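To make the argument concrete, we let one protein speak, a sequence paired with a row of structure tokens, as a model reads it:
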Amino acid sequence: MDLYIAKFDGETFSVPDKLKTTSGGETSDSNSIYEVMYGVGVQNNKLHYAWVENSENSYFLSEGTNKIYRMSDGGSKELITSTANAVSDFTVSKTNGYVAWKETNPDETAGKIYIANGTDKKELLTDEDISNFIFRWAAAGAARRARTET
């Protein structure tokens, strides 16, 4: 699955263009890696994109390695984290560059919530059941709260 972007000029959208990624100095406009849960936001007046890639093309992200990437418009692909845990509830802040997600270990006994801006990954501590995870973003650019709904 490849990612596409269309730009809005205030009146119309451009024709969707395949998102080109750069890794190791080489630019690629196609690949066979499963890319999912992508989002887009704005930081410092630049678009940024974030998504999850799975090394085994696992639809439920439960096999292989899950890597979360971020890329600024015109920039290079930046690895935020790599994990063997299943990734879900991935969300991108629309205004401050943060991404948040939930990881569940393979035996499904523990789930953890993470937030990152670039490669600065932090675990959000919670003693709540984190199924049905909802994340709210503060206008000032930091996470306001993580909460769960039962």
Summary: Residues 138-150 have pLDDT under 50 and may be disordered. The radius of gyration is 16 Å. Residues 62 and 86 are 5 Å apart (CA to CA). The chain is about 0% helix and 50% strand.
